Amino acid sequence: MTPTKAKTSNSIVPKKRRRGRPRRRPLRSERLIKAARIALAEMVTLTPQSHPINVSTLAKRIGVTRQAIYNNQLLEEIRKHADLQRQMHSVENERSSLRRPLEQRLVLLEAENKELRGKIDGWIQRWVEVEYNARMHGLDADLLFAPMPLPLRKTLAFKKSKKT
After folding, report:
1. C-alpha–C-alpha distance, residues 94 and 37, integer Å
2. What tens digit of pLDDT does each residue of 94-134 get?
3. In this structure, what DSSP letter does residue 25 have?
4. Crossing angle for the helix pair 29-44 and 75-88, nearest 10 degrees?
5. 8 Å CB contact between 54 and 82
6. CA-to-CA distance for 88 and 91, rounded, in angstroms?
7. Is the whole-model pTM more than 0.85?
8. E strands, the chain, where?
9. Where are the domains of the chain?
10. Rounded CA gap, 124 and 111, in Å?
11. Closest by Cα among 52, 59, 51 to 26
């Protein structure tokens, strides 16, 4: 038997490999600023009530700490984008955007109204033809549209049969 050697402290021990997905490199300096600008550009189009632009929401969106945003002097850019977001979603802009669909709806309703009036005119024309033809053939037009008599239910197969 050969004696086993004890591992010495200067031997190279392989490190354990991490399982799963490799971690992303954290955003720093230029990459962080670029990611912040892209996120701010996306956030400007969202409403300030549901997605306000501030340091916390930006940090959460790009996955960094608030301190990283402060260290990269992004406060002025955040303020500019927040002001732009407020301007885009101001009350006056919302009112004008509400007005546009109402005007479009008015145009659509007028077109539908015109179409329905044309249908009514067609039915009136058809009624006039029926009434004219009835008079020409010696019939009363009101008798043509008299209600139908009730069916004779006693003669139908729906009679209750007596079981014996």
Report:
1. 26
2. 666 666 688 888 999 999 999 999 999 999 999 899 889 88
3. P
4. 10
5. yes
6. 9
7. no
8. none
9. 29-88, 105-144
10. 20
11. 59
